Amino acid sequence: MSFEITERDLAGRAGVLLTRRGEVETPCLMPVINPVKNLIPARELKDNFGFKMIITNSYLILKHFGHEAPDVHQLVGYDGAIMTDSGAYQLLIYGGVETDPHEIVKFQERIGSDIGVILDTPTGGFASRTDAEKTVEETIRRARLSLEWREDPTMLWAGPIQGGRYLDLIRRSARTMGRLDFQTHPLGSPVQIMEGYDYSTLVDMIVAAKLSLPPDRPLHLFGAGHPMMLALAVALGCDLFDSAAYALFAKDDRYLTVRGTFRLDRLTELPCNCPVCSRYSQKDLLEMPKKEREENLARHNLYVTASEMKAIRQALKEGGLWELVEARSRAHPKLYEAYKRLGKYAKYLEENDPVIGKEVKGIFIYDKHSLARPEVMRHRKRVIENYSRPPGKEIGVFIPNPPERPYIKSKEYKYAAEILSGQEFHICFYGEPFGVVPSELSETFPLSQYECSEGIGMNVAKELKKFISANAYRKVFIIDPRSTMVIEGAKTLRSIDEIRGQLDEDSP
Ligand SMILES: [Zn+2]
């Protein structure tokens, strides 16, 4: 086993990928290195920026240095784990490569790559269905052959998942590739989809791949490296990333932040405290020779990316990934749309999110989209499907969530419990964000460890109705000072004091 999962939050995982150059902590982002001449010396990426693994292109090495190329670590000057790409990206962009699947597999073994990629046929973001289908089948064919050709058992191999934006093809591709002896799986084609900011489609693609892959295989979101979208991708279950963005954007005088990309000449401040931004002003950078500016911008872009990966790993470990995704989604309306798309996959997130073993941390509910988070979903589902009221408690009394928490320590509850002292009363709370909370459960996580902004637009009446009909009470009272909560089979009262009167009236 080369991958071990140590912690989870949502569908995100923290883990360790074991390579022959040591352990690599995931989620992990690999800066893309140009093997011929890189803007930033590769050894600095580990020593100064903390990147434990990098990715370079074996096809470019083969083209430039031929079969006499030295060991890839020696060539690029990096002693950590190195993944090599196969030229498939060049195949997608230029329509052809001067190598073949066999040659590039053997070449990657020979130059000592720690993780190799087979020469697959990328679907791309704009392929027709017929073409997409062909790329999936051809990639599978090449994958089977490539696994037969490999000889070095200590090297890891990546089996790309194709299918483009056709989700059924992604599922087919992931199912088949997942059965083959690969150690990681890159998801192809996101670059062109992200260029159009189509993050919602990206969410669909990631979930389609995840649901069809064995859970113990790391998923690599190929070509995705903008810091603003990394938290979302991790939350969905991506483990590996690569970034050429740091260098590409720098070349174009663009400055990366978690709030988006900015043109250097449009900034008046450098909103960052990395070594570059502490030393230079925006004006200094603009006045530098182009090459020097590009290098400094690339460094800043790397710092901000490394720092976001740290923030993500920290959030994941403390169970705060949802809040981070929610905050980052405000960087761009399309990213916010993708965040809202999580609602469609609430079940997927809930099933992957750990129920136990997670640090108990208060959850924040900002608006109705936060209701898709696993803690809320889980309670709402379980309180209907797996719960039955305590025996003998035949009269349901529903009171609005009191401000104090846990609810059963509130003065509202104490008062209700005092005047309804009979065995037959079952006191429950209702309101946002959990719908119905039976009093005997109100101390369990997260029912008293949350903060919710007011009026998030949950349909509380619907939750009450479901709960009441699932529990077959003899009588039901809903306490609602505004008398707006009207539900069939229940009596709505303005105050708890009216209950005794009601019961006296009913009994002869
Ligand atoms: Zn900076």
Question: What is this structure, in a nutshell?
Answer:
The chain contains 21 helices and 20 strands. It is an alpha/beta fold and 508 residues long.
Structural description of this entry:
With about 500 residues, the chain is an alpha/beta fold. The protein has two domains: about 350 residues, Queuine tRNA-ribosyltransferase-like (TIM Barrel, Alpha-Beta Barrel); about 130 residues, Uracil-DNA glycosylase-like (Rossmann fold, 3-Layer(aba) Sandwich). It has 21 helices and 20 strands. The chain has an eight-stranded parallel beta sheet. A five-stranded mixed beta sheet has the order 17-16-15-19-20, with helices on both faces. Helix 7 runs parallel beside helix 9, helix 10 packs antiparallel against helix 15 and helix 17 crosses helix 18. It starts with a strand and ends with a helix. The site of zinc ion (ZN) has 6 residues, from helix 12 and helix 14. Its cofactor is Zn(2+).
Estimated share of beta-strand residues? 15-25%
Question: What average pLDDT do the residues reach?
Answer: 94
Strand order of the largest sheet: 8-7-6-5-4-11-10-9
Hetero groups: zinc ion
The chain-level structural class is alpha/beta
Percent of residues in helical segments? 40-55%
Q: What is the CATH architecture descriptor of the largest domain?
A: Alpha-Beta Barrel
Count of distinct strands? 20
Q: Which term fits the overall shape?
A: elongated
- CATH hierarchy, class of the largest domain: Alpha Beta
Query: How many separate domains make up the residues?
Result: 2
The radius of gyration is 28 Å
CATH homologous superfamily label of the largest domain:
Queuine tRNA-ribosyltransferase-like
- Counting copies of identical and different chains, the oligomeric state is single chain
